[in-house]
Amino acid sequence: MRYIHKLPVFLLTGLLLLLSGCSELTVLNPKGPVAESQRDLIMYSLIFMLGIVMVVFILFTIMVVKYRDKPNRKEGDYKPNLHGNRKLEIIWTAIPIMIVTALSIPTVSTLFDLEEPPESSADQEPLVIYATSADWKWFFSYPEQGIETVNYLHIPTDRAIEFRLSSADSMAAFWIPALGGQRYNMAGMQTKLYLQADEPGVYKGRNSNFNGEGFTEQIFKVYAESSSEFRSWVESTKNTAPELTQDKYNNLLKPGLLGTMEFSSTHLQWVHHGTSEGADYSVERHRDAYGNQLHLDNGENHEHGPTGKEGEH
């Protein structure tokens, strides 16, 4: 009992220790406009909901203290009549609506804003990068530059990046916490994600959707650098990296872990990344979720079995 009076001190100390670790959370230390918008939305939601919790606990304390059973309380002193009380019914109906509205409006507004490239780099066209997941690695194709990397990528700072996401087999989720939230990679379709880095650095990316034994190692690094450094890296890769052949790409798709690689060509010329509008290359074939090659010719699919050379996975 002698420690009861120290309980507020213990609670305050624990809260300070908990909040002191927030600076280590990557999502609360954004490095680009998309991540900043999402950080602001997270903080708004947390503060708003903490305010609701405080109001509830204050009202709860008032009710417990004011209407607690006392030795001198007379029977019948407190007989609330809530049935048919229109004022109370309006209050406890309107308050939840107001809470949901206050949370929904900024959330929906932010989600719609993030479907477009960040305004801070509107003077430049977004850099298009195809991010293809496979068990358990990442392929990054640069159609404008004609190069491709495995398990790492370089991006210029202060320029929007338009990631076109798809999967060669199981579903994954592309996520670079320092630059923005995750979006799913799915076989047979393509999704878009706009991100941007405002600060040079090396950022960690990963698959945030569990997809088997190699899930924890399906990671990659993002090298954000100046435009001149990015162009130098592109030229160096084009001049020194080997060409990516179709047989090589099919072999790399087999389930397993890989190190970093780079190629002076991309797989986009022969692999279809989904049926969504906006694909700017010819449709020839892609792998289904089981690794079988699907040839697309005039809308007809012809499946090669897993025993064939092209069907091996």
Overview of the molecule:
- This protein is α+β, with helices and mostly antiparallel strands and 313 residues long.
- It folds into two domains: 28-55 and 87-115, no CATH class; 126-303, Sandwich (Immunoglobulin-like), CATH 2.60.40.420.
- 31% of the residues lie in helices and 24% in strands.
- It has five helices and 14 strands.
- Strands 8-5-1-2-3-11 form a six-stranded mixed sheet.
- It is elongated and about 90 Å long.
- The chain starts with 6 loop residues before the first helix and ends in a 10-residue tail after the last strand.
- 28% of the residues are buried.
- Mean pLDDT is 82; it is low at 275-313.
Task: Lay out the secondary structure.
Blueprint: H1 7-20, H2 33-66, H3 86-113, E1 127-134, E2 137-142, E3 147-150, E4 152-156, E5 161-167, E6 172-176, E7 180-185, E8 191-195, E9 201-207, E10 219-225, H4 227-240, H5 246-252, E11 261-263, E12 285-287, E13 293-297, E14 300-303
Parallel strand pairs: 1-5, 4-10
Antiparallel strand pairs: 1-2, 2-3, 3-11, 5-8, 6-7, 6-9, 9-10, 12-13, 13-14
Q: What are the main properties of this structure?
A:
313 residues; Immunoglobulin-like; 5 helices; 14 strands; 31% helix; elongated
The total of beta strands comes to: 14
Question: Are there runs of 5+ residues with pLDDT below 50, and where?
Answer: 275-313
**Strand arrangement in the largest pleated sheet:** 8-5-1-2-3-11
In DSSP terms, counting alpha (H) and pi (I) runs of 4 or more, how many helices? Answer: 5
Rounded average pLDDT: 82
CA-CA gap between termini: 66 Å
Order of helices and strands: HHHEEEEEEEEEEHHEEEE
CATH-defined topology of the largest domain: Immunoglobulin-like
CATH architecture of the largest domain: Sandwich
